[in-house]
């Protein structure tokens, strides 16, 4: 079936449907427009022909759920996305209104267009396209579009537990994040987990003069700096006892897949903004997919303004985030960190800000290669397979609670600037995403 001709015939209608969803603000951090956007997404699902659509309200922001069941014996595909977006700040750095989409040089500019409205709308419109082409789908399709991803999906796990039977599926398909920097699509088979921690150190009851009370008043910044020195060696290896106990090396197939991925050191240097970076392809993907990270996100204390202010700060705050690989457990890693802090800086207080479990689907799963070919056909470019992405998504809720394999297939361009001013999506990526989803349905049906 020539899905692209149907997409071309509906090109303007599809684009306007996306624009309508973008115009509806849905800033989860500020609880702005959430209810209205959930209702609009439900409306778009119904318009696409999804037979049963409902808005399920829970502890926080509502979830939009839709299902099209053709047979109890047919395989079931569960499509996940999120309708909430980041705040547009700083607004003055946008070249156009954040919530009024405009097209410039073949790209749509608007908050949420890449992350994640343009991607889940491509999937909803793919369902509409498939129904127009065939009158029905050969497999069961379910949609779950949530409204809390940008604030950590904190209620998604209990939601999945509560509605486990309703959400039962053979495969979970997510389109989120950017494609490869060379514009090629790829299938991600997992995510790194995350643990975000805040550490607080206290000295005197108030700031002191560094001359009058130097060598007398305690400086909590030094306490945190010395503590950090015990956490990592000069080669970047984490020194927390037990940190690497569950880390497994990649399989031979995973190594082979990594070496097939494109690699351009100059392009990576530009993306990072560091011309001094030296790394081979093997090192790059090994570190990105299979090694955990201990990162300093922020260290706040004392005076940071113009000129000088000679003080001994009374407090210091440290933010750490850790990206964890299969099979590291963020709860256990927190306990290990807690023991490390107690040993080296017992006066420092710890607080867990958030966590997410790592997740991985086997590269040998029979769904993977047919999906790769479908996406390759949809975009008209070679598609790759990457065993894990460097970032974190709530993927473990599918693999560990539902017990279903899960793939992430990004439709957004690598320079989408999500979370930043002038977020954008290449127009053709939107349409190619629609075609790829249709072809993915065909590929799964053939299995």
From TrEMBL:
Gene3D superfamilies: 3.30.70.360, Zn peptidases. It comes from the Bacteria. One of its GO terms (biological process) is proteolysis. Keywords: Hydrolase, Metal-binding, Protease. Residues 190-347 form the Peptidase M20 dimerisation domain. GO terms for molecular function: metal ion binding; peptidase activity. Signal peptide: none annotated. This is Acetylornithine deacetylase/succinyl-diaminopimelate desuccinylase-like protein. It comes from Salinicoccus kekensis.
